[in-house]
Design goal:
single chain, mainly alpha, Arc Repressor Mutant, subunit A, three-stranded antiparallel β-sheet, 63% helix
Length: 179
């Protein structure tokens, strides 16, 4: 997947300025796809040149003009093409897994695992709060919201798995007598 596709998905939900898109990435999409504000603006310019998005400019006095982007028919076609492609399995590239495999310093791994677990708990809390706020009745999720709901559920399940893995690591490493 390219950043372009994450932006197209966001623009199918609502037209937005580059600033608004950057905020969406910080608040939700960024949990699954990271991009700096600069990357978003550069990509929007390229997407506009490719005809995937169009921009309307609203002149403002005393400040920069407001440029709002919307997905075009060509952008929807690209998103449809992208969606139809089989998704490759993401390769696990993890410094933590390499450190764990080597287990050169058990105390450092235990400390790192505790930090990772706390991060998973924090993210899980945010995801669950978002699910409760936006989808109080999972059986009543509207069709247009289903993709966002399922992506959020994937995040929730991933964080739960991360917590369980950290718990297993801590259980194994903290109960060993030969530390």
């Amino acid at each position: 997947m390219a950043l372009e596709h994450a932006i197209l998905v966001s623009l199918t939900e609502q037209a937005a300025t580059g600033y608004d898109l950057a905020r969406r990435f910080d608040a939700s999409i960024g949990y699954f796809w990271r991009a700096s504000h600069q990357q978003i603006y550069k990509t929007l310019a390229r997407m506009e040149a490719d005809g995937w998005v169009s921009a309307t400019i609203e002149p403002r006095e005393g400040t920069a003009d407001k440029k709002t982007y919307a997905i075009t028919d060509a952008g929807r076609e690209e998103l449809t093409r992208f969606t139809a492609e089989p998704s490759p399995r993401e390769a696990l590239r993890s410094d933590f897994a390499v450190k764990l495999r080597g287990l050169a310093d058990v105390t450092a791994i235990v400390e790192d695992t505790r930090r990772r677990r706390a991060d998973h708990v924090e993210r899980l809390d945010r995801y669950e709060a978002s699910a409760k706020r936006h989808y109080p009745d999972p059986d009543a999720v509207e069709e247009r919201e289903r993709g966002a709901y399922l992506a959020l559920r994937g995040g929730i399940l991933s964080e739960r798995m991360g917590i369980a893995w950290c718990d297993e690591i801590l259980d194994q490493l903290e109960t060993r007598s030969d530390r």
